[in-house]
């Protein structure tokens, strides 16, 4: 959280925490909240049968400062070896957007962001092409393009990504149809804080031009998957998926257009949930507290 | 809860509670659960901005008996003036089904019940026609029919409903296309424990033969609403709704068939949630802890 | 169709026709197409059991000019007393957009239009507020605002609408959250060529602030209906409907945001189908040849 | 078609045909229909850009007998080298159901069949287990079980399948969770007239226990695909697909239950369309004239 964010008189906090499951956690956490004169307005929890971990997301109203709230929770966090986040509800997450030439995901994200539906702020859209300069500029968001033509320019682009993350206190990187494979080094840097989008089909198709393959097989549903970036391409933990029905009359080009719509809304949804601290990781799975 | 239900060695309990919202409730409730050596495995809560009420549903694992658990919670319930339910997870709710001649909802409910998806037990299906005798019998469920032809026979039918409720410790009454308007007296008796199903359209249609009206207007979506029975016909608190897409080529008869499918799955879903204590009332609204 | 539209060497035509149903129509129409050396690439038909009318939409490839094609079809059209349209596939329909302050529907329409998904051209967006000037301008579309504050200024606005229709050869008027009730005179002028969008609920709600009412009743689905404008407010023939699932935790403000999304995509869909001559009227119903 | 089916005074016919696309087909076909004093009540066509083939499905009302209609169409069929089917609308297709122990698909098919929604007749359900004997018997359908325990008993089962097809003039074989891999020989015999159902995920999973894998990856959508049986396991032309949303809280067992529901409704839908001659093959794709 940036220290300059002004707080309301009565603070509205979000708390997300993960630890090994055992009896008494809720009692301990809610005790700390009582101590901070907090009132729980939203609470969700889940215990993973796979990993034995306990996940919790709370929203509370409390007159406490960040320091007071952190202090109240500290003994509990220590006792249960919790990983926890404390944030102000609605604080815009500092987000770097990586793009290429396709505008659908970027436009959907920026339009809904401007409409107040996506609690992020975007210090920069960084692209390997200049195509989207005007679109991004219309929304008053800084735009920068750096061509990628070979290994050296790709390394330069990724160096600029890391620099932009540091310069802008970036908390989330969104790959909005960035279309480039990230280096393993950058994947490692971004672990757990970068979201990608890709098309999805039943059944899945490997290799080039999947929409053409989907057309050739006559699939009846096409969709999109938003997932965390990992070094295993397109195999990171899934955050959200959507599909839409198609029929035999659709050309491959129409399938692409339909798929892009699904990609846009799926990516924007995933970013929104992440920015609201609703996405928690449980190994290869996500816990989504909608 | 019937006292004869055998309990597992380690009990799995569901607790649902409602009270006026104020700080400290979660801490107090979780403290009682710690006292009963319980571990919370599922928890959902909601504070209604409309009524200021707090709703909570918990599932816990605890070695405590019902008496021990009730005793542990009693001081909390008293302090916060809670309305609460304590039950064994998965205990089949004793359910009376009222039907008429249409078999779709009854068959869907009985088939899924037999498949273990609906935690109810059905001591009786009561109908004003004999049409469904064989279908109900196939599932091994008792069936009884009493004709309704005038005010007197209707009063006799409703008297039999009340008698059946008492004789069988009925906790839920399901109107599975019963098609009769209940008397205000019976509505009052059933308040908060009877679920009805009816067709739904965009826009709504008043009067006779709504599917014909829907056809005449060329609606593109038809659906179903499951709701609590109140004396205000078809206006009780909504539990679940579904719709399905239709087009101009559908005849009124086809709209009816499609609508019946939606009614079946919507009613079965609502019954399942109610039986799992996931449906709580907040005035004219329902809180559904899925 | 504007005479300046350049035609491809091999023309791709759309033909839509309506007449009283009787044997031999398809044979007669396809004979005229054979005469025009045409090949049918898409064909849909429907006979209304309600009105006895026959509806057909064809796409054909033919080297014939408009005059040759019209001449080939003329004897058939006369013999069966057909109402018919002949147009070039993909020709952008000249569309006037009426708006107010809400930007969601306008942005969705303009963005998808720019992406080539909506075959229209927009000579003007006319609004009773200046709010959307920058948004519309970004897409390079002319924008004009005229305040409506009383009966006189409303009449002036409507006079400007009629003038703009005439000056720009307008074929379709889209009410993209225009929010004003049209006068009966304007409704009459626009009959069959103006599309409106409004929110939709199960059940329907009359009166002010329907989202607040929907919240109060705890509806589980909210949606939108795109329909033709008639003098009977919100009761014109339905073109398209969509719904989305909501739950008890949604505030009235969130319901509004969700509803606006449904409105946007539903309106854009209806406009696209209309521009492709896929929407035919059968009394109070629409036949949609998707 | 079985000769014993009584025809209505005024026949309602369905005609499905496939040939290489060229100008004049619709005119020629509709001319033959005029000659048979027929009136077209439903018509759909599609030209495949992939294979250059033309597909058409018609429903007509005509006083002609089958012989007269066939004679009228014969010159057209010959001229365009058509593959065609002529059938009475609604004639129940003779269908053999293969099952194993799972009852969901069989029950859905039999219940909807009894309700008049699926135009088939089922002379036999053949299973490798006796589990479903009572369920099938309840619907008045013959049931037979033959255990499969080794290669010899599997060959005997398949021989019985072929015998049952011949003895009962079977036109469609439905694998309603039959769970056995068919021999290449049987696949060849059944080509184009056997429908299978299997679960589907985004992304797809290979190998055993896919629901467990889907759980481990935390998929948000699970579904089902109905497809033609080919010797390439689970890779035959797709007829219908459905998905349903799931979240992190679902156990693998719950995913199985949800998946079975999708399988049931997807299979029944595919069977219905096939029985209505709405499913045509275009290489590896299906054309579905809904």
TrEMBL record, chains A, B, C, D:
Pathway in which this enzyme or protein is active: Purine metabolism; IMP biosynthesis via de novo pathway; formate from 10-formyl-5,6,7,8-tetrahydrofolate: step 1/1
Domain ACT: 14-91
UniProt entry tagged with the keyword Hydrolase: yes
Top-rank taxon: Bacteria
Residue numbers annotated as active site: 234
Signal peptide: none
Record's keyword terms, sorted: Hydrolase, One-carbon metabolism, Purine biosynthesis
Gene Ontology MF, one: formyltetrahydrofolate deformylase activity
Catalytic activity, as annotated: (6R)-10-formyltetrahydrofolate + H2O = (6S)-5,6,7,8-tetrahydrofolate + formate + H(+)
EC number(s) given by UniProt: 3.5.1.10
Presence of keyword Hydrolase: yes
Similarity field: Belongs to the PurU family.
Function: Catalyzes the hydrolysis of 10-formyltetrahydrofolate (formyl-FH4) to formate and tetrahydrofolate (FH4).
Name listed for the protein in its UniProt record: Formyltetrahydrofolate deformylase
């Amino acid at each position: 959280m940036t220290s300059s964010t002004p707080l309301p008189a009565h603070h509205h906090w979000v708390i997300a925490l993960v630890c090994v499951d055992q009896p008494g956690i809720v009692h301990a956490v809610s005790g700390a909240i009582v101590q901070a004169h907090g009132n729980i307005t939203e609470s969700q929890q889940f215990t993973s049968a796979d990993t034995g971990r306990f996940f919790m997301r709370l929203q509370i109203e409390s007159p406490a400062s960040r320091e007071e709230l952190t202090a109240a929770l500290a003994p509990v966090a220590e006792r249960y070896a919790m990983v926890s986040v404390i944030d102000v509800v609605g604080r815009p997450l500092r987000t770097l957007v990586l793009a290429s030439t396709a505008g659908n995901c970027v436009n959907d994200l920026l339009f809904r962001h401007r409409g107040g539906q996506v609690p992020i702020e975007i210090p920069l859209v960084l692209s390997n092409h200049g195509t989207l300069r005007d679109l991004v500029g219309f929304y008053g968001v800084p735009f920068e393009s750096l061509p990628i033509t070979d290994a050296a320019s790709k390394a330069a682009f990724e160096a600029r990504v890391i620099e932009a993350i540091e310069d802008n206190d970036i908390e989330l990187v969104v790959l909005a149809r960035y279309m480039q494979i990230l280096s393993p080094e950058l994947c490692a840097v971004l672990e757990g804080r970068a979201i990608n989008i890709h098309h999805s089909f039943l059944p899945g198709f490997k290799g080039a031009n999947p929409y053409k393959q989907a057309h050739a097989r006559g699939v009846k549903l096409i969709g999109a998957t938003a997932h965390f970036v990992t070094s295993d391409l397109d195999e990171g933990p899934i955050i959200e998926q959507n599909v839409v029905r198609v029929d035999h009359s659709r050309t491959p080009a129409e399938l692409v257009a339909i798929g892009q719509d699904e990609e846009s809304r799926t990516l924007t949804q995933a970013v929104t949930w992440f920015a609201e601290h609703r996405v928690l990781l449980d190994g290869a799975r996500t816990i989504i507290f909608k």
